[in-house]
Amino acid sequence: MNENIDLKLHVWRQNGPSDGGRFEDYTGYAKNISTHASFLEFLDVVNDRLILDGKEAIAFDHDCREGICGSCGVVINGQPHGPQRATTTCQLHMRKFQTGAEIWVEPFRARAFPVVKDLAVDRSGFDRIVQAGGFITARAGSAPDANEIPVPKTVADKSMDAAACIGCGACVAACPNASASLFTSAKVAHLGLLPQGQAERMKRAISMVGQHEKEGFGACSNHYECEAACPKQVSVEFIARMNRDHLKAQLTYVESAGKDGGAG
Amino acid sequence: MENALTLTQTGIGKKAAVALTGAVMFGFVLVHMLGNLQIFLGRETLNHYSEMLHAVPELLWVARAVLLVSVVTHITLTVDLALRNAKARPTAYRVSADVGRQDPLMRYARKTMILSGPIVLSFIVFHLAHLTLGEVPGLAHGQDVYENVVRGFQNPVVAGFYVFANILLGLHLYHGGHSLLQSLGLRNPRLDPRARTAAAAFAAAVTVGNVVMPLAVLVRAVGADVQ
Ligand code: HEM
Ligand code: FES
Fold first, then answer.
1. Looking at this predicted complex, what is its ipTM?
2. Does A177 touch chain B (CB under 8 A)?
3. Does residue A26 sit in helix, strand or coil?
4. Is A141 found in the same domain as A252?
């Protein structure tokens, strides 16, 4: 078996948010690539060769390189994180490509994810959505004893399914409307499913959705491309749940006015 | 609350209104289709049914008002959402590929909601002129409903337009039927397979029912008594 492949590589280069950006043909730098390399290692090799040629390296985000941090993520031939399902870009390997294959690498494209440089985009909109309500305000203190608060296994599992979201943004990249509904719904649901998250469940469903809108993400049209692109396979079932919570909260939730004095 | 937007400002709120108005129209097209199938029972029955609908003008106008509000709300909001959604991705991908695997008919239905909608709308306008007002030169005149329907459908262009528009409506409803459950937050894994089947069956029933009428007249299986 041939362990090295040659690729026809096109990479999006953009100097900053206000630059128009363009594709560069890096086929000359994408030869003799080990099929054991991950996609990010492939980009590392291309970057080494670019630097040796006196050119600027391609900027892309990455951190853990083991599929858990959510930093990496580019669109490869129209698919966020590339052709392999349930896999982050850092866990995608070059053996998934045939020698001679044409590869177009683009950044996640959304108004709410402005390009910082080349393939790196600013996903701080996600942080602001979480800041809007992805927490509980009770003091958590040190880690509680296991099973102090009883949670049925099936509920805990469902909450973990939502909490599996690593916030990479592939859902936004895949959505025809650049909506962050899957991300937001996962963050709304993993707390909303647990006893600790109940007290603020309605408020959370209003503020997080509100922040989602303000960031300029689109609305969900139920295409479900997000679920297909999600490296953690977070289900659109959580979007239905978020819709339900949001509608209910809009119709019933009234924020209690804080009284002076408190108890006693 | 700092971030609070009202129901009419969030995409979820708007989609809920789209889904509710869609559901109203969904109910209407089903009842409308079933009522109209009486054409197969002949002139008397159909005209009698039409008279019955007109018997209490107040009720008729209430129903019309509900439908009008539904159509207007549905269109205003879907156009508003479509514009907002287009703005959310100002730069298109160089390569566009679908990630999910899904049945091709559903994929087509999903991607063409914003096209099937307006074509259905243009059809509704023509349809109202043809059969509600009963005034399209050469096709319809006066209040003999049976006569107007048959004369209209004997014209292959008119019959063709009805068939075409109703197939698009069927596609719209194929996606719309279970999409509305998701938008309203009613979808869940337990009901999902059944809801999908029900939505598909509903869409298919409305489409087949609406398409056989013009076809039956076109081949003179119905309305041979009208010259
Ligand atoms: C007349 C012009 C119409 C237009 C422009 C239109 C447009 C649309 C669009 C664009 C959507 C998708 C919205 C989204 O996902 O963001 C939609 C959904 C829907 N439409 Fe229509 N439509 C029209 C007529 C109708 C009619 C006549 C019916 C029923 C008989 C109908 C039933 C539905 C349903 C049930 C949905 C699903 C709602 C949801 O996704 O939550 N529509 N429509
Ligand atoms: S680099 Fe951490 S998930 Fe890919």
1. 0.92
2. yes
3. coil
4. yes
Interface contact A104, partner B, CB < 8 A:
yes
Say yes or no: A44 and A148 in one domain.
Answer: no
Residues of A in contact with B98 (CB under 8 A): 225, 228
pLDDT one-digit tens code per residue, A161-191: 999 999 999 999 999 999 999 999 999 999 9
State the DSSP code for A123.
-
- The CA-based angle B227-B160-B122, given to 5 degrees, is 110
Domain endpoint, select from A79, A97, A117: A117
**Distance from the A232 Cα atom to the nearest Cα atom in chain B, whole angstroms:** 14
B170-179: per-residue pLDDT in tens?
Answer: 999 999 988 9
Q: A184: phi > 0 → left, psi -120 to 50 → alpha, else beta; which?
A: alpha
Instruction: Please indicate, yes or no, whether residues A87 and A147 belong to a single structural domain of this protein.
Output: no
Residue B118 near ligand 1, beta carbon < 6 Å = yes
Q: Retrieve residue B200's tokens.
A: 């598909």
- Six token digits for residue A194: 């647990």
- Ligand 1 pocket check for B14: Cβ under 6 Å: no
Q: Which residues pair with A8 in a beta bridge?
A: A102
